[in-house]
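[agent] plan:
  1. take the single chain provided in the ticket
  2. run structure prediction with default settings
  3. attach structure tokens to the ticket
  4. add a short note for the reviewer (M.T.)
[agent] executing step 1
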Amino acid sequence: MAEHDLGELFTKFAGKMVRLACSKCRNPSDGEDRVSEIFRRLQANPSVPLGNPKRFLIRAVINECMNWNMKTDCETRSLKKVIVFEPPPDMAELRDEINRAVLSLPDEQKEVFVLKTDEDSPTMAEVADWLGIPESTAASRFRHACETLRTLIARPEEARK
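[agent] step 2 finished; step 3 output follows
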């Protein structure tokens, strides 16, 4: 793979990769470091066959973060302000609360939620393909994530209705 192509992949997918890595590492700098490490390895070994680049890079993030979390003590790392979900403008005041709630989701639900709510609005079939799981499993995880988030982020005026 040419360096120019690697730059194009970075430009195209780095934002999604960093959000996913931050959700897995629970720390912005660790998430950014994991994505940088993936691109460093790709640059060092340009013959790696990517196949579907988006799927390859998402799987690489998940695996890299899983390895990182096993090597480091996740419990002692401080949880810094991580933005994994950008709510619509009418909910901007709830951004920190929503992101804390997203980070509290089980990993499998969090992965699907972060990928599905990305700005490019992927289909559930695409998310399932990236994660290597059946579409029905991805849909179920997304539904459970949404139900959990609704419970965690009940707006007071909606709770009274």
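[agent] step 4 note for reviewer: The radius of gyration is 16 Å.
[agent] ticket updated
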